[in-house]
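Please, structure for the following, as tokens.
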Amino acid sequence: MHMEKKTAEKRGLSAIFRLCPVRHVLVLLSALLIGLHLLTRGDHALNVWLSEHFVRRVHRALSLATAKLPFSVAELLIGLAGIGLIVYIIISIIQLIRRREGLRKVYIIFVTLAAFGLAVYAGFCLLWGVYYYGDDFSARSGLEAEEISARELAAVTRYFAELANEYAGQVPRDANGVCATDRDRVLALSTELYDKTQTAFPCLEGPPLPAKGVHFSRLLSYTDFTGFFFPFTAEANVNTDFPPCLFAATVAHELAHQRGVAKEQEANFVAVLACLNYGDPDFVYSASLLAYTHLGNALYTADHSAWEEIYNSLSEPVRLDFAANRAYWRQFDTPVQAVSNTVYEGFLHSYDQVLGLRSYGACVDLLVNYYYEAAAEN
């Protein structure tokens, strides 16, 4: 009797497996890969090796392949995946209603969706997650984000405010006096943006590839994204709908991700560094606004009177650009944006980025440490 029960159980499991064997295997392999990633997060040496000898090489090969296409392959894949999932769910529901297949069909639908979701997340863990547990940019570059004083913070904030004022008159402007940088020009120049910076910092070395504009950029704005790096195609994708004053810095930021800088705060610093090294007015102005934004936010709390003095020194063109940027993003202040931010906050926390979205401001330490000497001389 006991043997018969065991045999029945085996046959039952075997029958369940045969319902969709490929999807079951995909679920098991993906779960195994995710489990290994979670278990080895504390193995720094392993993650460094994977980052340098696997992920960087895969990304280089993928980026070289996708660069030959004039459109964002990432956007195409995401669109097709979204449409495919919706169509699959609708057809499956219709089949359930018409054929009344019951629990068997429901189970297959569940396994199919689980296989897809787990496979995507497993690939993400392997092609991006390991970066968070290897050497970050600070470690690879040798730059130290040491503790800073309010006086040093004020000096560097003033430095970037003056830089923004200086370059505000060197960028194209529309009839209303708002920055009208040509986004296509910025994308075309992005291939050479890191030439000088990678010479000074070999850890940023990579092929001279352009960032790609997203066709449905308005949808990105609704989710509060100015761009994204897609690890499955190794493309730096940028939103082309938001005001152009910060567009060049956004391009530099996404290209920093393409060159292995995973942490957002470090990608912001690298973006400023690359744009200033490049020297083109559109890039320098955009990077100055980005740097001033993060530095100013920190200074507002650390020394409000110093912040007020520096803010009042901003020229009218700079203020117009900040106002245009705020007005643009205000229209997307919706529940969709709130949900998007909550999800992304959760994602950052899941990879031990404990500051969450606030970690974007942590680039302040790197900016002050790196540019304080120039600010003091100025």
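Residues 355-360 have pLDDT under 50 and may be disordered. The CA atoms of residues 196 and 212 lie 21 Å apart.
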